[in-house]
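Progress note, sequence design subtask.
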């Protein structure tokens, strides 16, 4: 996560305050970059791919729970190394095509480094979860050094977000042990969400075509 610049060497972040300061700064940086991308898109294509952006820092309880679940001790070093989503940004888009366009725009930026990609749209999770995940490193410029800080970017449609939010609540209630018929029904809902997204995208394509034809004939 860290790179050495100038005199100061960051082998590890040693205290919680520094850790949170860096992740909070990384969220600010990423949020601004994403809003600028959206504005540029609006300016060049007269279209906003982004519906909402939500930034959050993972709670200490949730960080410790994740480390424990993966068999790691709750140390600052382990948090930095093993928890990729302490800083998280969720981008909600209108259409699945927007997701890939945005992901491509983010990946091409020279001021970020993509560390990992997970396409849960092409390959949904066992639960039915669909979303596009990117782990990026954002350089945080301090007075005497630069620290690359990890941020997880989740990009999904409104429908995928609706499913994920409700499924998260339900799964939380059962602490991962939901009765099988509930898991089955949730998976079925995920398939409906996928169909809905496909239909909305093809409808949008048809609208764009029809509008262009109308403008041509006007
Ligand atoms: P919360 O409460 O959202 O913070 P990794 O170390 O990155 O390889 P990880 O973290 O399991 O392993 O990565 P993954 O699978 O990409 O999941 C990261 C996040 O995606 C989760 O964070 C959830 O926000 C979301 N997610 C993944 N699977 C599901 C799912 O089945 N249902 C829902 N609703 N969300 C999911 P956290 O820390 O689990 O939760």
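Output:
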């Amino acid at each position: 996560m860290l790179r050495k610049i100038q005199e100061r060497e960051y082998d590890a972040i040693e205290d919680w305050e520094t850790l949170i300061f860096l992740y909070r700064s990384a969220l600010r940086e990423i949020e601004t970059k994403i809003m600028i991308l959206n504005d540029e898109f609006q300016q060049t294509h007269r279209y906003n791919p982004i519906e909402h952006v939500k930034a959050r820092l993972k709670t200490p309880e949730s960080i410790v729970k994740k480390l424990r679940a993966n068999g790691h001790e709750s140390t600052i070093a382990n948090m930095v190394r093993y928890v990729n989503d302490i800083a998280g940004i969720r981008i909600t888009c209108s259409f699945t095509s927007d997701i890939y366009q945005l992901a491509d725009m983010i990946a091409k930026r020279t001021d970020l480094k993509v560390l990992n990609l997970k396409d849960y749209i092409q390959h949904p999770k066992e639960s039915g979860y669909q979303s596009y995940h990117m782990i990026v490193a954002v350089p945080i410029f301090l007075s005497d050094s630069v620290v690359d800080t990890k941020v997880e970017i989740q990009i999904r449609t409104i429908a995928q977000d609706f499913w994920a939010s409700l499924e998260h609540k339900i799964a939380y209630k059962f602490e991962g042990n939901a009765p099988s018929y509930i898991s089955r029904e949730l998976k079925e809902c995920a398939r409906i969400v996928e169909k809905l997204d496909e239909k909305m995208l093809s409808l949008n394509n048809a609208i764009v075509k029809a509008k262009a034809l109308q403008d041509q004939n006007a």
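The radius of gyration is 20 Å. Work on this subtask will continue into the next period as scheduled.
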